[in-house]
């Protein structure tokens, strides 16, 4: 996936957002994320896509869409928030800040 | 590990010849179910006929025949390619949604249309070879009946088997009155109406469907319909994704002057085959698409349900799922995100 020492944007984003702990699922997450980028570019649908009857065009994916499209990759360490943020940054082309609130 | 013979065929005749010569052979396409079944020692074919190279991948408009104006789905077209095909997303959006509701992206990329129809129940007693299962070993009993049956049937079950059929795609195909085109060793073709393809368990739960030995699914034909602009596939499950249905509903409504001219409702997760909700359909024909009418139709359909000890919730869930699917079908622009 990398070009010599030049990491693929998804790889770099996973590093930036700390998208892994043990690393066991990471190669699969990265492969699926790269496929996700192509599918979104081609306007391919997911179960949560609104208005599926519109003509295929490149899609900007919400967090909800990314989660659905990555649902075939499971992470026992629970790195999902960081994985989704990493993918979202590359897919949207804009920087993604992770935010959180105290529960209750 | 059990040894088996593996042959890859490039054309249909040798595929049919090999299948006709050995009743213990199985076709291999995407392998997304058969290989799992072999690894769990549930399926024990002594021969795999790899048909993945056969030229049965076309998705095309039908210009003649009984389903003229409709679409033919090649049996070896991938589920993902089928869901995203322009003809399907525009004219059969319920089918697109149903396919996308199933499995995961990786599985949808490998799975074929024909294979989807051939997949077997995920009942844990079927999968566990140490457990009694009349489907896997006729006469051995049903472990689920007195066991954990939360995911099992509420319609059409028998004392021998309470398993459900897991395919989402098949629910949409049942709603659309699809036809399954099959070929056999002599090259003879026949078409099986979709609602006659899968069976109820009755006294022979070991038979999932009405294919004859050696038959190959070549294509699935969809007749033209008038409910593309008001259809929806709702899947209710324990997780947000990558899980089988507790209950699912494919609904398609044809409106004329705000009257329901025609309606199709099919349910998944409730029976040994996709369940056409014919009582609900009959009740709604000619009526206005109101919440009260939807509720009455749902009640009449679910009134015949026979729940088990572990799945009584499916009756109320089924009622609400039918109503919700019909409401979503009416609201054409509402997607699945919220």
Please specify the SSE layout and strand pairing:
The complex is a heterodimer of chains A (104) and B (338).
Chain A: H1 9-16, H2 26-41, H3 63-69, H4 80-92
Chain B: E1 5-8, H1 12-21, E2 25-28, H2 34-39, E3 47-50, E4 59-61, E5 71-74, H3 79-84, H4 86-91, H5 93-101, H6 105-110, H7 113-118, H8 124-127, H9 168-175, E6 179-183, E7 189-193, E8 216-222, E9 231-236, E10 247-256, E11 259-268, E12 275-276, H10 278-284, H11 291-302, H12 313-330
Parallel strand pairs in B: 1-3, 2-3
Antiparallel strand pairs in B: 4-5, 5-8, 6-7, 6-8, 9-10, 10-11, 11-12
Helix pairs in contact in B: 5-9, 10-11, 11-12
Describe this structure in words.
The complex is a heterodimer of chains A (104) and B (338). The model of chain A has no long low-confidence stretch (mean pLDDT 93). Chain A is 42% helix and 0% strand. Chain A has helices spanning 9-16, 26-41, 63-69, 80-92. The longest helix of chain A is centred in the first third of the chain and has 16 residues, at 26-41. The termini of chain A are far apart. Chain A contains 4 helices and no strands. Chain A has 104 residues and is mainly alpha-helical. In chain A, helix 2 runs parallel beside helix 4. Chain B has 338 residues and is of the alpha+beta class. In chain B, 29% of the residues lie in helices and 19% in strands. Chain B contains 12 helices and 12 strands. In chain B, strands 4-5-8-6-7 form a 5-stranded antiparallel sheet. The longest helix of chain B has 18 residues, at 313-330. The chains are: A mainly alpha (104), B alpha+beta (338). The A-B interface holds A 32, 35-36, 39, 44-53, 56, 62, 64-65, 67-73 and B 80, 83-84, 86, 89-90, 93, 96-97, 100-101, 103-107, 228-229, 235, 240-242, 333-337.
